[in-house]
Specification:
The chain has 161 residues and is α+β, with helices and mostly antiparallel strands. The chain folds into two domains: 50 residues, Winged helix-like DNA-binding domain superfamily/Winged helix DNA-binding domain (Arc Repressor Mutant, subunit A, Orthogonal Bundle); 82 residues, 2-Layer Sandwich (Alpha-Beta Plaits). It is 40% helix and 19% strand. The chain contains seven helices and four strands, in the order ααααβαββαβα. The longest helix has 13 residues.
Amino acid sequence: MSFTKLDRRDIAILKTLATEGRISKTALAERVNLSATACWDRLQRLEGSGLIKGYHADFELRQLAPHVTVFVLAELASHKAEAFQTFEAIVDSHDEITGCWALGGGFDYLLQVISRDIESYQRLMDTVLEQDAGLARYFTYIVTKAVKQTPLPFDLLFDTQ
């Protein structure tokens, strides 16, 4: 895999956007010590390269609506390519599944599900099973509280010295 070459200013732009996505372009330029034009050019390059996939708001779900967050460990019955493709297509078709990661090791996938309640979650899983997603077994873990959620650890990922 080839990585996009980033210098310390690019990293500073990304780090700032990770915590302050709504920052104005002028304020961003000041924060990373660039002229507005130079900062805008870099931002367009970072967006154009696909490094910046979008800008999002971070919501306090407890205040927004009743919900339950569930993590699901899933193991497929078959490990043929078609089985993985089928499972991933089914996962992609359900909006309640807000995250899905393929794993190495004992389980094949980790899913994050956000549903209105446990009954809604169970209906989702019943539907996934009826769609013949190829599950051998799955394990449900209900989130009781969020302990930590942070932006990317830019200082640990990049040597900016």
